[in-house]
Sequence to fold (1282 residues):
Amino acid sequence: MVCDMNFSELLQRVVQDTVGTNPFGDLGRVWQGQQPTLSDGSLLMFLPELIVVGTILALLFVRLFDLDKVFSGQSVALLGSTVALLVAVVQFLALKNFDGAASDAVHKTMFTGLLVYDAFGVFFKVFLLLFLQLVVYLTRLTGLPDREDAPDFYTLLFGSTLGMLLMISSNNLLMVFLGIEMTSVPSYAMVGFLKGRRTSSEAAFKYVVYGAGAAGVMLYGISLLAGLLGTTNFPEMAVRLNMVIGTHPLKMDATLLTLLLSIVMILVGFAFKLSIFPFHFWGPDAFEGASTEVAGFLSVASKGAAFALLLRVLLALVGPTTEQSGLMVPVYFYLGIAISVLAAVTATFGNLAAYSQNNIKRMLAYSTIAHAGYMLMAVGAMLVLLNATKHVPDAQVRWDLATRAVEGLLFYLWVYMLMNLGAFAVAAFIRNELFSEDITDFGGLWTQAPVLTFAMACCMFSLIGMPPFGGFTGKFMVFSSLFQAGHYHWAMWGVLAIAGLNTVFSLFYYVRVLKFMFIAPAKDDARRVKVPLTSAAGSYVFALAVLVLWTGMWGAKYLSATAHDVASVLFP
Amino acid sequence: MLELLVILIPLCPLLACLAITVLGPSLKENSHWLTVLGNAGAFTCALVALIGVATNGFPEGSQTIPLYQWMSIPGSSNTMALDITIALHIDSMSAIMLTMLTFVATLVAIYASSYMHGDPGYARFFACVSLFTFSMIMLVLSANFLQLFMFWEAVGLCSYLLIGFWYEKPSASAAGMKAFLVNRVGDFGFAIGIFLLWRTFGSVDYVDTIFNPAALASVAAKYPGLLETICLCLFTGAIGKSAQFPLHVWLPDAMEGPTPVSALIHAATMVTAGVYMVARCTNLYMLAPHAQLVVSIIGGLTALIAALIGLTQTDLKRVLAYSTVSQLGYMFLGLGTGTFLGIGGAMFHLVTHAFFKALLFLGAGSVMHAMGGVIDMRQFGGLRKLMPKTYATFLVGSLALAGLFPLSGFWSKDTILASVRMAAHPEAHKADAHPATTDGHDAHGKPAESGHGAADHGKAGHGDAHAAVASVDRTKVKLFGIAATTWYEILFWAGSFTAFLTAFYTFRAVFMTFHGEERIPEEAGHHAHESPSAMTTPLIILALGAAFLGLALGHMSAIFNGTGFFDGFLSKTIPGTAGHHDADWFVIGLSTVAAIAGIGLAWMMYAERSGVPAAIAQAVPPLYRLSLNKFYFDELYYIFLVVPVVCLAQLSRFIDWIGVDGLVGFISRIPGAIAKLARPIQNGLVQFYALSMMLATAMLLWALLVRPGL
Fold:
């Protein structure tokens, strides 16, 4: 117990937990691609985040001491994100190579249990840092922040990413809130970054107010839960929860009501981050007001981080074994269905609303909502599969099925990053050339800039979910989990049917963009777009498009195997 | 090494196609170099692969090279396995096809470089030709039915693109559409056949189906009718692709395309895909005697009808088109006899036909080139002095087509007719069906002196394929109450009569075009001279092939080792074809007489412009008109198919307009309506957003409280 210890002993333990016994020796081991020993401290595992922090500091210094003549903010940002990405990749390879994917040794905690270090978290670290890298490069190509603004912009971008990195490693309710807020606050500023534009400021303002409201609700939920359980630590939550509920069978009393209320309130926070209907209102406004690059960043990164965190929170509530969650199983089963239904409504709403949009950013904003819906279905399916104790008594089978659902989600997120970023990037390049974001102005691009059009076609077809693009495989995996879940509750088949119909709906507005790009003639007074394949912009979008195609045709094998390994870490 | 070479075969034309597509605008009239290079590269590789197969370079005589697996879903108790793979399967049969295909394609590309000179779509033409060559190679190299179907459609697409190459000409685009639509009918059956195969065998791979005699035999024993159905369905596809009765109507119209295309796609290669497919599925068809009989009947009927129509056509290319249909009919006639003599003969005819028919088409193209695009034989004549090289090569091709000894057509056509006669008199060829009695034969299958029943016509058999044949009793097979042997007897005489007709209409065309007094249409202008050497050289090379291929590879070569080179080579894939076949002197005599009679009659009627044809036409006007109007097939289809379909289409359009459009319009207004409903929600008022957040939270809580039934 803490009270038995004297202060210096406590300090000693904290320091050792943070720095480790032999930090530099371990650093060498990690660098050689080896598994860090158990004696290593948190800082080593926290290295990618530290590099991000260091980059932020460097950016601030650059700004402060007027060094941006020598090191432009962009190059500092590019360097920082590259190094951080490399370290994260090394970490991931070390974890993947030297551990049985599900062994206990992988679940290591950092900073006295506030953060967790496992393959799942590191997978998302790689995901986020790669995406950060791509976005930094994109902003460099589009020249979104000018030389003067660059340090500010990248400080915000890296700050937001840091928050996301905390989100995905959270092992404690406090870190959940901290991470989400750290992510949100810089995003508000980024949305309002186009200072001269009224819409931008308005969007940022709405985003702030709405985000603050959602955060408040979530914080209330967290405090209710923490008060009820007496802990904020994830690994203890499921056990405590059963202790608190106590009685069998489940009875509706004040405790349970409070518990449900707290769960719903926490979910509201997530729904805000994921822009789930009807918590999505900020999305279209913010995306339209923000620059295309920022919108692209928010649409992918914050969703990815939020999904990772959502999985962590839900699995902390459900607990690793059925005995621990025994009493709450039916509640979680129906929570899964409720989430799936919400997801279906969200996907439908997003697709229908995207239908009549003429601004490419606004259309993509609604499309983002729709895709969040598809991905949320996987989460719902996971909950249903995990808690279908009545139909599948064998826990191992349920975990396997749930692993598949998570695998589908991870695959989808990965492809979604590529295809959505591709679409936003093409939109940004077109905006730079045409000064327009209206789809109707995209006429004649096929003859003027075939690379942009080709990339857009790949991304759009992938977003629709057409084979052989990666989007198809991702959708296929999510849908097959839904189908599996349908065996245990009919409502999931209903969700699947709606999801299928949604795919058809989405065809119209995605293809409409291509129709203008390929078929419609250019407007007479329009500028001629020149983005050849050999230009940096052209090769950037081309590479993204090829990756989207590659994930569907060849990469699916490797990516899904990796996603499977990573997902299996979450389950015992 | 050899595997890499096999991969290179399709890769060469594919790269050429991509390069022309990308560089076409800057290459312009140099585009053909890429196609020629691609095709020549493919030919070189194919030739080496052929030699590799012949010298047992592939350990098992054949090899499947997997290239790419898109998905593989294992089957379970209640689902079928699905495996979508692209792989290349090389064996002696595909090697023969590839070598022939790439050789002809190379020559045609060289020829076309001159023929298409000055055409605005020059680059597009060569891109399409390269794409076609690639698709056809992939079709031939397919290792499963799905891939076969995919490239089956791809060659159809290329054919469509090239028939309608001069799309600004209404007749050309209509012909392209017709070819495409008619082929859909056949492909429909083909697809059903593939689905049936998949359902039956749980796989569409060749190794699990047609290369797996055990599986075939067990299915044949369990469901006797199923294999027949599959065979008929697959044959439907062949009917469409290979322009057999009643779907032959698209091929003559396909002559609207540039002549090199007619030579390559619509004579030598694509239209033989059906023949190739049926020959590929020999193991399957051998277990389906009824389906085989149908194949023969359709083939024989097509051969006869097309020859009859060919008698009166005045368009040189159309005569050749009907002759192609007719010759393809011969091939199916041979394939359907259920004898290895017939299958080997059909494949051999496929190869020889590719040479002499490509030659004839290119010759016709040469004439057309010189005559300024005029191809109506009534408008020109006596060109033999003007175009000596074209004339000489055309004559060789015609003699080969007529089947005159010792040109290539003689050997292959004769084999087919002999096989039909063999099928008609199985008792006379008993040893064929009972290879177990090999004790009466020596190792080379030469007839033994001991006189083993009717072993005079016997051949040594080896292999299990024979056993499979033996397991099907063909003598009991009946169709429409008529015994199979009777059918084959009828088909034999029909085939022999067709041989006579073939010789006649072929030389009618020769005499009308090249003999008589010299007449040149006005359109010819200054073009009226022999074609450039880029066009005549391919003609000469093809003529050499048409002249000597049969002699070199046919049964004559059997004197060296007992089995003809071609049959011996093919036997690596279809073991049964290696048997020794005694010459059937009756058939040889009959077909030679028929050919000479045909040529002689044509000489009498057409060598000099005489009144005889007109007199005959007046004597039997109905018959004449029947032939001239192509048996009214187009009209019949128009009345019985097109008109009802158009009526149905109009009805559908009406329903569509009233019902579906209304519905769709209604549905399409739903998103708008919802958006309108949602617009006040997305009103930009943060207060309202907060309200909705609160309501939604309450709803979610309520759902959780109510649903678990607490």
